[in-house]
DNA sequence: CTTGACTTTGCACGTTTATGCACGTTTTAT
DNA sequence: ATAAAACGTGCATAAACGTGCAAAGTCAAG
């Protein structure tokens, strides 16, 4: 295998999985870890990824504002993204929320999926612009920079004009009693509005969100039908939601 | 085997396998590696493939997001972007079109500029999400993937609700008689609509756009007040526009 | 048919690049 | 506090590289 080809492969794996583990990759490619480490160092020098102990993480300048958060649980987020992407049936109309997890869902849509994705996240729109068959509807409004999503009156008005089959919601807190929560008042209102216009709502949550609560409540937990979480979590974390009749889907982290 | 025939074969193998390994190919064809290397060098000089250590890789698609498209000719477009960015006054409300040139404008806004940018391009929105002070208004609609901008009825409705001081328009053709043109009918309609809701329209055009015409006419050239072009162009290219009373701003390429 | 200009190819040479290993250091986990 | 894993650096080797050159081949004008 050519060196440049290998580097391209590394970037592809990074995009797909949200992380690189040097040892794993060296075994996969049948090369010494030194070589992989060298590649990672060079790619990092070009600013194409971020080097960390044990491997590498994305450096995506387009999502630089996220970069701090992106490091939280990249493998898990990518796995959740894949699991959510698999839930979308051909012909469906779905709403994709903003945030890093939603971007992972967009990245992992099957490349032959014919469906419509509605989103108020320009990041999601940019990713899906490269998808060959998915129809994208962009919801406008005032840009809330912290989360990179549209919010405000115009956003509400636009959301009122669509009805979707499934809403894939990102949150910062999932709590059996407090409900679904997030860190911005206006964002919470938008999520609530989308929820009302969706036949079904699916919440994407990596483990640090479970049992946590943020300042602004979006809706009670019973509003949602499915919770997608990473695999291998202790039972006591997910049991409360099962007991409330919520389907808990676990995403394997390959 | 004829040289040209061999080169055609190389390109075919490259398309089929996604890569060329010089040694393998030389054995396959019963020629010395030197000959193959020479071919690869020449094909690379023609831009038909990308030369790498050990062989070659495809020229465009695999590499497009690898080394980055905008690295190709960073000079002119970036210079035009900087020049346009300098034209924005504090407190103004401007509309930024889609396209790579508009993204350059967004990247080059002074980091302390307090202004409002309206755009139907998610790419521009993502870039401006990192800007500390600029207010961003995102116009929604159906996503036209080729240009990565929102189009359609919803886009029209949203545009009708804003009035901006300056519209920075990207085009694919600027011609003194034909006018401003672009390659998509719906995009042309959107640009025309924005034009009507702007006090002033500025067109950003790198040299290859001047004197060129695309299928769909946006507006007559007299609709615009300023044309931003790169520096160092021959007079005969810009003189026709000056004669029509259009201010031609040249962007130094430092 | 011959001549001379030009092209193509393979080889020799010295240079650059890629890779794996050894060694000592730093980071992480226990 | 300690052990294991990951790290960076220097080094040796082999592969791949470019260049200059000469032999073989091609072609058109004479």
List keywords for this structure.
homodimer; 254 residues; alpha/beta; Arc Repressor Mutant, subunit A; 7-stranded parallel beta sheet; 38% helix; globular; DNA-binding; DNA-binding (chains A, B); transcription regulation (chains A, B); NagB/RpiA_transferase-like (chains A, B); repressor (chains A, B)
Sequence-ordered SSE layout with sheet pairings:
Two copies of one chain form a homodimer.
Chain A: H1 3-17, E1 20-21, H2 22-29, H3 33-45, E2 49-52, E3 55-58, H4 67-70, H5 74-86, E4 93-96, H6 100-107, E5 116-119, H7 122-128, E6 135-138, E7 141-144, E8 149-151, H8 153-159, E9 164-170, E10 173-175, E11 179-182, H9 185-196, E12 198-204, E13 216-219, E14 226-230, H10 235-243, E15 247-251
Helix pairs in contact in A: 2-3, 5-6, 6-7
Chain B binds a DNA duplex (30 and 30 nucleotides) through residues 3, 22-23, 31-35, 37-38, 41, 53-55.
Structural notes for this entry:
2 copies of one chain form a homodimer. With 254 residues, chain A is α/β, with parallel strands linked by helices. Chain A folds into 2 domains: 3-59, Arc Repressor Mutant, subunit A, CATH 1.10.10; 70-251, 3-Layer(aba) Sandwich (Rossmann fold). Chain A is built from 10 helices and 15 strands. Chain A has helices at residues 3-17, 22-29, 33-45, 67-70, 74-86, 100-107, 122-128, 153-159, 185-196, 235-243, and strands at 20-21, 49-52, 55-58, 93-96, 116-119, 135-138, 141-144, 149-151, 164-170, 173-175, 179-182, 198-204, 216-219, 226-230, 247-251. In chain A, the strands form 4 sheets. In chain A, strands 6-5-4-9-12-14-15 form a 7-stranded parallel β-sheet, with helices on both faces. Chain A has a 3-stranded antiparallel β-sheet with strand order 1-3-2. A 3-stranded antiparallel β-sheet of chain A has the order 10-11-13. In chain A, helix 10 (235-243) links the parallel strand 14 (226-230) and strand 15. The first copy, chain A, is globular. The first copy, chain A, starts with a helix and ends with a strand. The interface between A and B is large, with 35 and 36 residues. Strand 7 of chain A pairs antiparallel with strand 6 (135-138) of chain B, so a sheet runs across the interface. Chain B binds a DNA duplex (30 and 30 nucleotides) through residues 3, 22-23, 31-35, 37-38, 41, 53-55. Chains A, B: One of its GO terms (molecular function) is DNA-binding transcription factor activity. Chains A, B: Residues 3-58 form the HTH deoR-type domain. Chains A, B: This is DeoR family transcriptional regulator. Chains A, B: InterPro entries: AsnC-type_HTH_dom, Carb_Metab_HTH_regulators, DeoR-like_C, DeoR_HTH, NagB/RpiA_transferase-like, Tscrpt_reg_HTH_DeoR_CS, WH-like_DNA-bd_sf, WH_DNA-bd_sf.
